[in-house]
Amino acid sequence: MKLRHAMVCSSNQNRSMEAHSLLKREGFDVSSYGTGAHVKLPGPSLREPNVYEFGTPYKQMFDDLRRKDPELYKRNGILPMLKRNSTVKLAPQRWQDNAADGSFDVVFTFEEKVFDMVIEDLHNREHTLMKTVLAINLDVKDNHEEAASGAKLALELCLQLEAAESWEDSIDDIFSWGFITVILCQSSQM
Prior knowledge:
Layout: E1 4-9, H1 15-25, E2 29-34, E3 39-41, E4 50-52, H2 58-68, H3 70-75, H4 78-88, H5 95-98, E5 106-109, H6 112-124, E6 130-138, H7 144-163, H8 167-174, E7 180-188
Parallel strand pairs: 1-2, 1-5, 5-6
Antiparallel strand pairs: 3-4, 6-7
Helix pairs in contact: 1-4, 1-7, 2-4, 7-8
């Protein structure tokens, strides 16, 4: 594969990790990140989420939730999700703290507020070397079924980008769908 891809959601748990897992299995050069202040997972109620720091290993979260209420977290899909995540990478990473290390060609986000944060971050970096980055937002609800559908759509778009001789020349044909937000940005790269 010729392009470097980043998948970004709020907590680097469901949507970005579903896409990361799928693209990794297909042989893409892919990383994933979250943009939130903390990693939040559903808890026993909306007012009681499970909150972790970025960098907390997925396995540690899995063990913690399995100890708290294994039936609840198995039933709502959190334990299987964390198990999947731990096979993809060690721990969730925060975009603002880690993505500057990577030189990405394509960045997928899965909700508008995450997209806005990524664009703001790309524009605010210290400019040493400018490079065009294709930033794409797919609005995907944060549930397991929608995350799987969003990952398949991201894969389809990545396959088209990889197949194009020059994605810059083919972008209008590839992204002719109206529900996708696309921005080309100039980003500093190390």
